[in-house]
Amino acid sequence: MTERRFPIDSPLPDKRQVAASFSRAAGSYDSVAGLQRRVGETLLECLPDEGAPQRWLDLGCGTGYFTRALGARFPRAEGLALDIAEGMLRHARPLGGAAHFVAGDAECLPLREASVDLLFSSLALQWCADFATVLDEARRVLRPGGRLAFSSLCVGTLQELRDSWEAVDGFVHVNRFRRFEAYQRHCAASGLQVLHLQRRAERLHVADLRQLTHELKALGAHNLNPGRPGGLTGPARIRALNDAYERQREAAGLPVTYQVVYGVLRRP
After folding, report:
1. Would residue 169 count as lying in a domain?
2. Do residues 171 and 228 lie in contact, with contact meaning Cβ atoms separated by under 8 Å?
3. What CATH number did the domain enclosing 111 receive?
4. Average pLDDT over the chain, rounded to whole?
């Protein structure tokens, strides 16, 4: 089945719904976050060894796993952690890793101009509707020579699940993500120097559909998009979805693909 193309400006989830969903998932997130940790570790490897920051920000810190990793890597620096989900901050704050844990929005950072040397953001910016504004804010708060290192998701993520739902009905059941070409365009126009920008498919397998839907809910990343169907999904449609997904089964299990964008940008 060919990939359905959504317009670049397709509506993304309401931020209040995103914050509420991830707040509810704070206690379960780490138990199913294997892929998220793999992606974040890859992003950490993109950071240069030289020139340790004096001040860094974990943007979209979630449960603080990479806040603590950044704190261990840069023990002499002042660390800040920010997330839009209060529940995630309540979970992360007692575990440490940063001097300050702040509730805030990547599209309107509560920071002064030229106040940080490193912005690190792993698998958070896909929830921001206006990526150009995110980059504007990054340029504003970075000091000259400072870097934005981010990972995000683009079109093609959860494509197997999307294709299976398309065989069942026409509703929006899977989160929408912007195209990789949109990331390229916005980064090129940001006023930041693009040091690294690539798309990489991260593929895993699950035993069955139930495992996948459980993990997405535990992550807080189940369907949040406008246009999703209201109410409970009936058993007949669930059986049809399961049958459609089972047709894609491989020896290792049901495939689940995440199209991950990795980027490192520098303020001149």
Report:
1. no
2. yes
3. 3.40.50.150
4. 89
**CA 154, CA 181: separation in Å to the nearest integer?**
9
Pick the more confident residue, 18 or 249: 249
> Residue 220 in 3-state DSSP?
coil
Burial class (CB in 10 A: 0-12, 13-18, 19+), 231: exposed
Residue 35 pLDDT > 60: yes
The H or E element that residue 201 is part of is: strand 193-206
Domain range for 110 is: 15-155+176-203+257-266
Q: How far apart are CA 130 and CA 84, in angstroms?
A: 15
Residue 104, token pair as written in the block: 């805030």
Residue 47 lies in a domain: yes
Average pLDDT of the segment spanning 1-14: 44
Place of tokens 């093609």: 156
